[in-house]
Specification:
This protein is α+β, with helices and mostly antiparallel strands and about 150 residues long. It is built from 3 helices and 7 strands, in the order H-H-E-E-E-E-E-E-E-H.
Length: about 150
Amino acid sequence: MRRFDLAPLYRATVGFDQVADMMDRILADTAQSPSYPPYNIEKTAEDAWRISIAVAGFDENDLGVELRENALIVSAKKTDDADERTYLHRGIANRAFERRFTLADHVRVAGASHVNGMLNIDLVREVPEALKPRQIEIAGSNTVDTKAVEAK
């Protein structure tokens, strides 16, 4: 695997530490990224997404969805029922897992649901009014009092 040195990025930029850290984390995690449980990320609107995670065999009490800073952490721990059942073949993986998703600024979790073995987490981006683009009205030459400006 190739390893990229992001040191020049740190030297030449100010305030982009979060982006450089994210790229470093992504490049490091590529080789060892877990494949369990499988998941989809779909765009449901211009500023909305849904993460769907296949969690067959888990119920709502076994699942945990937590938002910590800009990280969405989905975890599951199955209560052990090995004493109650005797399996001839056990092909359904009910092993514990923890899956992390890094969220962009102003993205919040709108809700989560568990339907038919799928955990659906809905996300929306809500940009604060202060950060939204706004039009600045341009005053015409007739509305500006030029004599008052010249007097100053």
